[in-house]
Amino acid sequence: xxxxxxxxxxxxxxxxxxxxxxxxxxxxxxxxxxxxxxxxxxxxxxxxxxxxxxxxxxxxxxxxxxxxxxxxxxxxxxxxxxxxxxxxxxxxxxxxxxxxxxxxxxxxxxxxxxxxxxxxxxxxxxx
Amino acid sequence: xxxxxxxxxxxxxxxxxxxxxxxxxxxxxxxxxxxxxxxxxxxxxxxxxxxxxxxxxxxxxxxxxxxxxxxxxxxxxxxxxxxxxxxxxxxxxxxxxxxxxxxxxxxxxxxxx
Lengths: 127, 113
Fold this sequence. Notes:
The complex is a heterodimer. Chain A is mainly α. Chain A has helices at residues 18-46, 54-62, 64-91, 103-126, and strands at 95-96, 99-100. Chain A is flat. The N and C termini of chain A lie far apart (70 Å). Chain B has helices at residues 9-37, 45-53, 55-82, 86-89, 92-111. In chain B, helix 3 runs antiparallel to helix 5. Chain B is elongated and about 55 Å long. Chains A and B meet through helix 1, helix 2, helix 3 and helix 4 of A and helix 1, helix 2, helix 3 and helix 5 of B.
């Protein structure tokens, strides 16, 4: 029987270095995604034909608590967008003839796509 | 499973990536709409209600709920493992079950226009 050598890692390992902390925040942006999904489900529920609580939902959105929570979610969402786009050249390796497409070009194309989609959605909803 | 390998893993990675891409592209503008445009009064109660009752909006929202929840489930599970809470993160059925349940709730609600 061999015993696996295992050096215990303290739970606060991610607080030791800025890069570790950024990694953990990146992973925890998923909680912002979850929180906003909850709001999306509430939006669907309160706007059903047999629901009468749409004014409650709207009141919540216009209240200070919602604005504060939205600002936190927005910061995390933008961090997720930035880190996700920064990783796209690693996932999407493109070749043009025998030359590899520059990673910056792929990330730049994704960043442009993000801006175009954001503008289009804003225009569709607000326009 | 004879080989002992988890053959469902690629499916969850695919949903994680799909949800990650969808949320990277769409979440900031959605948060800006409900968190800035609505409280600022740029979009009124009737307009928001009309937008949410549009069948296309409802279908899109259900699709996004599905992708966002699977993205969260996968990434958060691994974050828990990294935080030393592997006993919780390893309960795959709990996280993917919540993602499926949330999608079903959203889907059934979306049908009630």
